[in-house]
Amino acid sequence: MISVIGGFVLDPLKIYLDNIEDILKRILIEEINNIRQAASVIADAIINDRLIHVFGTGHSMILAEEMFLRAGGLVPVNALLDKNFSIISGIASTINERTPNLAKKLLKKYNLQKGDILIVASVSGINAVPVELAYEARKKGIKVIAITSLEASKRLTPRNPLGKRLFEVSDIVIDNKVPLGDAVVELPGLEQRIAPASTIAGAFIINCLVIETARLLLERNIKPPIWVSGNVPNSDKINMQYVNKLIGRIAHLGIEALLREIKKEEKAPEKISISEKPKEIIIYGDLITPYVIIRDGAVIIKNSKIVFIGASEDVHSSKDSLVLDYSDHYVLPGFIDIHVHGCEGANAFDGSVDSLKLMAYNLSKHGVTSFLPTAGTLPRETLLKIASAVKEATKQEIAGAKILGLNIEGPFLNPKKKGAMIVGFMRKPDIDEVKEIYNASGGYLRIMTIAPELEGALEVIRWLSLHDVIPSIGHSNATYEEATKGFDCGARLVTHLFNAMRGFHHRDPGIIGAALSREDVSVELITDGIHVDRSAIKFTISAKGLDNVLIVSDATPLAGFPDGEYVFPGFPKITIRNKKATLPDGTLAGSTLTLDEALRNLVKWGLSIKEAIRMLSTNQAKLLGLKKGILRVGYDADIVILNKDLEPLVTIVEGRIVYKRKS
């Protein structure tokens, strides 16, 4: 590492090249056994469908970036690109990497699991975060591979509470052969050496691992999963297969960008303005309260409320009255959908107020007067964004169904009962995350689905119950006893009964048996005739009684769309045939049901309109503690008018006409 020999000044660029070549050759010769050992455990992890996590702080984070989403690189790599440790944070990244007790938060944030592999890159190997991360990961059953400078690390004093250096807390150590201080070139007149070598050395080691892992997989007749350059023809088709498989498991695949792409798929909203609210509306028709039927009845609406309900002969209009004469039509409470992910292209999970507004209008065309936009199992940041959007939307006047708050189907679900949810986004119950979401929603979080058998679930259920959020049991493999514990802690609803849960058996009744035997528990049903057989629907209504069954759509953004194949960027293809939506493996992909269709199905299967309306509106309002769902004086004027084919003609939300079918 000298620049003067025998009085002659050598070219410093040639010196740098020579030093780099020397380091790389030493790595290949002296570290080959360690590289092969590391590649072997990486290959085993890939075969077992585990992830390879890569972490570094400051410029060592470049190695995580080099291995992640890299053309010609391994696919199942999860880079821990926390900006607090990135050079983008400037000198703060140096301060942060020296701060103790942050490693457990990183493990939790990036969901490292037993059987995974963790590669930690740190030249010095003495600072708190990389050392503690390796130490905590090994405690969880995660193999740790260290890329570090043994020369530098052995000459430095540990700067962490463990009093250890990275090579001392790792399973496999690969020495990058970099000297203390990293730089390798000296110039006359300059005390400090320049031109660091660790990035090149580290990238060389990373790609040696890639090469050796691919070779080992081929030896075992397994095709290595390798990213293809985005500039190569047909690369999108190849790479998106990997994305579809890994979305949710890998943190920085770009879920936000994918959701923005989904938003582009939305149908443009029909031009509709928020209509003026008439001083008085008089509606004539056959009223279904739903407890009684009033033939040739009338409803009078003033100031968003129902002020009269009775015989039409007792009503007299004035010049200020807007008269809606729908004699020989049905006038009934508007539908309330407490579990709906989207409708006619609009969705509840991109975190925008505009999408919620479009969803509200599209639902109103199907007789829905109020709803809970329902998020699925998504990253923490995405759920917070959705919660904030719902809070904002509840403050605005909307030309459509009223947004009552937020329903979240997850994220604390059992992967064994994933349904159409993304397993990679499922996580262990975390009361701090629940509090954060609740606060972001401004207290508008109304329902959360949770699997009660998970560790920490009962504590979350109790917290939700104490804060007037309805815990709902679903996507669960709970036994009868585990479900009962959930109900005893405050859960009082079951998410889409029968679907994505342990099946009923006379010696193992599970959630279904527990739910059917509890008078204080209500159940959701999807009445499309696909998710649940009509005989099971009738049996459930008989067992639970009309007052404890809530019909939901569980509709995806494809609700209202015709048969066909639909692809949202980054998500598996969904096929609709005869209104049945399925994933490529045949799993049901939510539903395409709308609540007006649900009504028609129930009536077709032998229920009366009175009975159906109680399960489509009245029970939902009762569950949420709202003065809706009944045609009754003093209740909100949420009304839908149907023709004799049970098709919505007019939808009224709190005294305002939000939808009127064109003739």
Work out the helicity level: 25-40%
CATH class of the domain at 4-235: Alpha Beta
The counted number of beta strands is: 30
Examine the secondary-structure arrangement and name the CATH architecture of the domain at 4-235.
3-Layer(aba) Sandwich
Gyration radius, rounded: 31 Å
CATH fold topology of the domain at 4-235: Rossmann fold
Write down the overall mean pLDDT.
92
What would you say about this model in short?
The protein is of the alpha/beta class. The chain has 19 helices and 30 strands.
Question: Please, could you describe this protein's structure?
Answer:
This protein is of the alpha/beta class and 663 residues long. The protein has a domain at 4-235: Glucose-6-phosphate isomerase like protein, domain 1 (Rossmann fold). It has 19 helices and 30 strands. The strands form seven sheets. Strands 14, 17, 18, 19, 20, 21, 22, 23 and 24 form a nine-stranded parallel sheet that branches. It has a seven-stranded mixed sheet with strand order 12-11-10-13-28-29-30. It has a five-stranded parallel sheet with strand order 4-3-5-6-7, with helices on both faces. Helix 2 crosses helix 8 (198-219), helix 3 runs parallel beside helix 8 and helix 12 (380-394) packs parallel to helix 13. The longest helix is centred in the first third of the chain and has 22 residues, at 198-219. The protein is elongated. The N and C termini lie far apart (87 Å). The mean pLDDT is 92.
What are the SSEs and their pairings?
Elements: E1 4-5, E2 8-9, H1 12-30, H2 32-47, E3 52-56, H3 61-67, E4 77-79, H4 91-97, H5 103-109, E5 117-121, H6 128-139, E6 143-148, H7 150-154, E7 172-175, E8 183-185, E9 194-196, H8 198-219, H9 235-246, H10 255-264, E10 280-288, E11 293-302, E12 305-311, E13 321-333, E14 335-340, E15 342-343, E16 346-347, H11 353-364, E17 368-375, H12 380-394, E18 402-403, E19 406-409, H13 431-440, E20 445-450, H14 457-466, E21 470-473, H15 480-488, E22 493-494, H16 510-517, E23 522-526, H17 534-544, E24 549-552, E25 564-566, E26 574-577, E27 580-582, H18 595-604, H19 609-624, E28 639-642, E29 648-653, E30 656-660
Parallel strand pairs: 3-4, 3-5, 5-6, 6-7, 10-13, 14-17, 17-18, 17-19, 19-20, 20-21, 21-22, 22-23, 23-24
Antiparallel strand pairs: 1-2, 8-9, 10-11, 11-12, 13-28, 15-16, 25-26, 26-27, 28-29, 29-30
Helix pairs in contact: 1-8, 2-8, 3-8, 5-6, 12-13, 15-16, 18-19
